[in-house]
Amino acid sequence: MKDIVKSNSLYKENMLNTGLSEREKKILDILTEDQNQTVNSLSVMFGVSTVTIRSDLASLEEKGLIVRMRGGAFPAYHPAILEGQKRMREEKLRIAKAAAGMIEDGDTVMINDGSTSSLIARYLLGKRDIHVVTNSTQVFTYARINPAIHLTLVGGEFRPSTEALVGPMALRDIEEYHVKYAFLGTGGFSLETGLTTHLAEGAEIFKKMASHAEQVITVTDSSKYGKNGFVKIFPLARMDKIITDRGLSHETYKLLTDSGLNVELV
């Protein structure tokens, strides 16, 4: 059980609110690893009654974290989301925190559905009167427990694998806003190919948000450097700032900054 809890700990830390009991957290970890667990097997595993397990599952369902079925349950998030959040966990948290540090009381921002950019909302507690426009339902997870955030969730077609709202409706909704900052995650970046992603609809959201912001900041972990997604978005020079982690090599950092790019390592 310890290995399961350790391997999935970022699921509970990065994607969920903190109002869970320790047993609820462990149940969620176990269901993420093995969706075939039943009420009876969980009861035996934790040494509590089936009534207690059903109560825990009801609590998790009420918080929107699982979907219950007869005799058991499964996580509400797509496996691809969980896998993305596992990679470079600490680095993504530092990047998101640094990005949130740029935001001041009263600011307006757009945040896309990247695995790093979606974490920015986690660090907005304590700030006041922040207006956030997003296509990410992960951002909603954090924003709904922060009364100081005025959240606009654009419409569109829901993509479970990215927890994103995309398509013509989302693009039309974004057209209605103008913000100070757009914080945008990406699938890959390099001087040669610029910013890239794997999905054309994600690239369209990125471009639309960038065109409606005074400053465009890319938030991406260093493992993405040199990776080329299927769809090109922008040259790196289009970005006002790139926030990444210190895993970026000194040579690459120098190459980027010598090219005139504003790169912050955290």
In short:
With 266 residues, the protein is an alpha/beta fold.
Strand order of the largest sheet: 5-4-3-8-11-13-14
The count of strands amounts to: 14
Distance between the termini: 33 Å
Order of helices and strands: HHHHHEEHHEEHEEEHEEEHEEEHE
> What is the beta-strand fraction?
15-25%
Total number of distinct structural domains: 2
Category from helices, strands and their pairing: alpha/beta
Tell me the radius of gyration.
19 Å
Oligomer: single chain
- As a percent range, the share of helical residues equals 25-40%
Judging by the overall fold, what is the CATH architecture of the largest domain? 3-Layer(aba) Sandwich
Overall mean pLDDT:
88
**Morphology call:** globular
Q: CATH fold name of the largest domain, please?
A: Rossmann fold
Q: Spans of 5+ residues with little confidence (pLDDT < 50)?
A: 1-18
Q: Profile the largest sheet.
A: 7 strands, parallel
In the CATH scheme, the class of the largest domain would be Alpha Beta
- Tell me the number of helical segments per DSSP (H or I, 4 or more residues long): 11
